[in-house]
Amino acid sequence: MPPAKKTAALAPFADRLLTWFDVHGRHDLPWQHPRTPYRVWLSEIMLQQTQVTTVIPYFERFLQRFPDVASLAAAPVDDVLALWAGLGYYARARNLHRCAQAVVNEHGGEFPRDIEAMQALPGIGRSTAGAILSQAHGDRHAILDGNVRRVLSRHAAVEGWPGAPAVQKKLWTVSESLLPQARMADYTQAIMDLGASLCSTRKPACAICPLTQDCGARIAGLTAQIPGAKPKPKQERPERVTQVLLIENGQGELLLERRPPAGIWGGLWCPPLLDEGLDPAAACRERYALEAGPAQALPPLHHAFSHFDLELRPLRLRAEPASSLRETAELAWIKMDDPTKGLPAPIRKLLDARRKAGLPENEKCPEPFTA
Question: In the predicted model, what is the mean pLDDT of residues 2-8?
Answer without folding.
Answer: 52
